[in-house]
Design goal:
two-stranded antiparallel ribbon, threonine biosynthesis (chains A, B), five-stranded antiparallel beta sheet, homoserine kinase activity (chains A, B), ATP-binding (chains A, B), EC 2.7.1.39 (chains A, B), homodimer, Phosphorylase Kinase, domain 1, globular, about 325 residues, 10 helices, Aminoglycoside 3'-phosphotransferase, Chain: A, domain 2
């Protein structure tokens, strides 16, 4: 839930006068996204989302993010497509913030994905990877293996206040993954945060992928591992292998995984679990007094990590042999 | 800014299955309204607003509010129109909250109204008063003269922490108004909160009036006085008589004020200023630690009150002689 910056209608109208998208008919802040302020803008020509980038998004990353959406949309992926101003620019400034306007995507996210949704998502993820293959810009993944130790140090001994022994468990896992993180897997553009709230469905078909503000250049199979974590566990912490099989089969129908990627999948899944465990832990330990938004539970990812630690082969995730 | 209650898409779909409004295509929490949770719902037939009533709205008042919108819309006023379920009901329950779905109104609110906007608003307010004349339900105005002393007592001596002498100024004004509040003016349905953010415009024409959750039965001219306070002062606290003249002329073009109403206008304007001064004062003194939303400044209404105290005749507001 967000909308951090207030935009006056008159300011919006001045901004829109630089675009060929008709005149403003409606304008509402929408309570979505935790990093940015988002507004649903309706004009005589259609619906758009105006995003104002708040301070957690680095300005130097914006050309990567909006360029990527433009690139993916041009290759037929259903994602928000940046709208160029009459000047040709796709980045602007509104209310003192960097801003971009993108097309509005219809669709509704699912809270409890079925195996069918997982299959759709797997196909969509592989399409994203293929569509991104020739995207020329690069952005390092600040939340891959090299970024985890600084997060762990930021949490420090306070981790044990969240759960006894958590600090030691994370330290041990971190040591294992730092020593054994895969090398030389196929790389490219990954979404890196493709949780169910970032995927839209219409009539149970994937209708769009949104929120590219963690996208970066990393192992494609790491994105698969993130999705297994985000889509294939039940609320009680159990891994649902039917959903995993559906997601992986959907993915492989579009982009088959190499033998190296398959072999690395259990480690990548551990890494993905540790990444969300660590960022949630830091958020959990840094909630402002009286905040309205309750942070997500880091221990959900400790449970997932425990599951992955016990996995011996990628087939345990439901991967076709 | 709001959205207090989270609604799962699957829950929304189950709710919508009771309506003949097509299938869901989009669903976004919108950051508006301070009392309720609001969602923009798009279906294959159009756009709607789903409102979930949070605890500050009393359930027993809901038939008045939704019945009023239905009544006004049926008489041609451009306001949100409740959508009946297939069962005929216009009140429902979603996520454990009372809820209603209304039509979506296009339009954009203005931050700095011009005299032209004030004229439009005056006409719309008078149309609302005429359209509400035969609405059969009644709702007492809890925020008229009888409600002010309890608010003042809730603020208590802490008022002086907001501005030195504020407590004494309010006590004196309260005594004057309690002894001299008008009697027997024409009464009916009033909006009671028609601030610029509750009025939509398209091409500078009033396109809709929203947020009827303070509506009640009271003097019609008190609603005019509220609007003079809300629309006709500049940011520096000065009364803009050109805007006042436009608002009053717009109103009188549709519903002329009686001589009694004109004579009472200065007292009604003082009362309206005191009402918003008091509610803002109570909110100001009761901000939860760390709250994201900064309450509105009560002293803005002290300045307005000082202006009204110096007004001798209704003509000073710009009323035609």
């Amino acid at each position: 839930m967000a909308v951090y910056t207030d935009v006056a209608p008159v300011e919006l109208e001045a901004f829109l006068s630089g675009y060929d998208i008709g005149s403003l008919t409606s304008f509402h802040g929408i309570a979505e996204g935790v990093e940015n302020s988002n507004f649903l803008v309706q004009t005589t020509t259609g619906s758009y989302i105006l995003t104002l980038y708040e301070k957690r998004v680095r300005r130097e990353d914006l050309p990567f993010f909006v360029g990527l959406m433009q690139h993916l949309a041009a290759r037929g992926l259903s994602c928000p497509e940046p709208v160029a101003a009459r000047s040709g620019a796709i980045l602007a400034e509104v209310a003192g913030r960097p801003a971009a306007m993108v097309t509005f995507l219809p669709g509704v996210s699912v809270r409890r994905p079925t195996a069918h949704h997982c299959a759709e998502l797997g196909r969509g993820l592989a399409q994203l990877h293929l569509a991104g293959a020739d995207f020329p810009l690069k952005r390092a993944n600040a939340l891959s293996v090299a970024g985890w130790r600084p997060l762990f140090e930021a949490a420090g001994a306070a981790a044990d206040t969240v759960a006894p022994g958590l600090s030691g468990a994370v330290a041990a896992e971190l040591a294992v993954l730092e020593a054994n993180w895969p090398q030389d897997l196929p790389s490219g553009v990954i979404h890196a945060d493709l949780f169910p709230d970032n995927a839209f469905f219409l009539d149970d078909q994937l209708s769009g992928i949104i929120d590219f503000y963690f996208a970066c250049t990393d192992f494609l199979a790491y994105d698969v591992a993130i999705c297994l974590n985000a889509w294939c566990f039940e609320a009680d912490g159990a891994y649902n292998v039917t959903k995993g099989r559906a997601l992986l089969a959907g993915y492989e129908a579009v982009r088959p995984l190499s033998e190296d990627e398959k072999a690395a999948l259990p480690r990548l899944a551990r890494g993905a679990a540790l990444r969300f465990l660590l960022t949630r832990l830091v958020d959990w330990l840094n909630v402002p007094e009286g905040a309205l938004v309750r942070p997500k539970d880091p221990l959900e990812y400790l449970k997932k990590l425990r599951f992955h630690q016990a996995v011996e082969r990628a087939q345990d995730y439901g991967l076709a042999a």
